[in-house]
Design a protein that fits this description.
With 295 residues, the chain is of the alpha/beta class. The chain has twelve helices and nine strands. The longest helix is centred in the middle third of the chain and has 16 residues.
């Protein structure tokens, strides 16, 4: 694949090596831990919520949802490991990400406080891993348009993230420049806008805020899911799927029930993978009902 600037694309293994070997474009080096994630508290209601974003997202992707629930809940918006303003690692691991979120929950709410965790896509996998790994912290789960069944096909993500890596950051002076240069590779305007939220201006020019080389190199791991052997979570789980999305399939239900026996599947009609963005009022109503029903 040739880059937008005409150069050959760096291979995923080379890219991961660059991220692990020294200071990266955003000026951060991978850390072995413990890691303090970037978080934000929203609202002041009695219920404790934790929102986990998807791949290339950030905690504030759920700010509108958290604000809509602020009368009944206090929400922790989390930038997950290797994303937005949170620390980077040399390897991608859902187990490590769950540990990092567990530490963030203890810091924000205290070790004895159980929370309801809402996770979308990659964040849904982190949420499931967290519940299986740290059940003492989790009262209930909301898993949004993702399945615990691994998918060998990474879909459009290799091309999407590859196009970002190929972008010559030295050639741009604004996000508008980046948007223009990505238009042919990523024609969907909403997708470009979502991805470009991660392009920030640093002291030396523009750079990617997430650990983009590692995420690109780790797509097979991101699409997989390897929970602790023999683990299950017996708390209530609301499993929301987009009616127009194929991320959750009928054949996934037995595995979901094996890991989460008290699962309640719901399909939101006319919603894509981005359920909370496509149908915000319906999504917020589902959360409110689940939270106030004492799960």
């Amino acid at each position: 694949m040739t880059g937008i600037n005409g150069a050959a694309a760096q291979s995923s293994t080379e890219a991961a090596g660059t991220a692990a070997a020294g200071t990266t474009a955003a000026g951060r080096t991978p850390t072995a831990g413990p890691r303090q994630l970037k978080t934000e508290l929203v609202g002041g209601g009695k219920h404790r919520l934790v929102f986990l974003h998807g791949l290339m997202g950030r905690g504030r992707n759920f700010f509108e949802t958290a604000t809509s629930l602020s009368d009944i809940a206090t929400s922790l918006l989390v930038d997950q490991t290797n994303h937005a303003a949170s620390p980077w690692t040399a390897e991608f691991s859902y187990a490590d990400m769950a540990d990092d979120v567990a530490d963030a929950i203890r810091t924000a709410f205290g070790a004895g406080e159980k929370v309801i965790v809402i996770g979308h896509s990659m964040g849904g996998k982190t949420a499931m891993q967290l519940a299986l790994q740290h059940p003492e912290l989790v009262h209930a789960l909301v898993v949004v348009d993702i399945s615990p069944v691994p998918r060998p096909d990474a879909g459009v993500f290799p091309d999407l993230l590859g196009s970002l890596l190929e972008l010559d950051l030295n050639a741009i002076r604004s996000r508008t420049d980046a948007d223009r240069l990505l238009r042919d590779k990523i024609p969907d305007e909403r997708t470009r806008a979502f991805l470009l939220q991660s392009l920030i201006r640093g002291d030396g020019g523009f750079c990617w805020e997430p650990n983009l080389p590692l995420l690109h190199a780790s797509l097979q791991t991101i699409m997989g899911f390897a929970p602790p052997v023999g683990a299950s979570f017996n708390g209530p789980v609301l499993w929301i799927a987009g009616g127009n999305s194929d991320y959750v399939r009928p054949g996934d239900l037995p595995r979901m029930q094996e890991l989460f026996p008290d699962v309640y599947p719901v399909v939101v009609d006319d919603a894509s993978h981005w359920v909370h963005a496509d149908k915000p009022e319906q999504f917020q109503a589902l959360l409110r009902e689940f939270i106030t029903s004492d799960c």
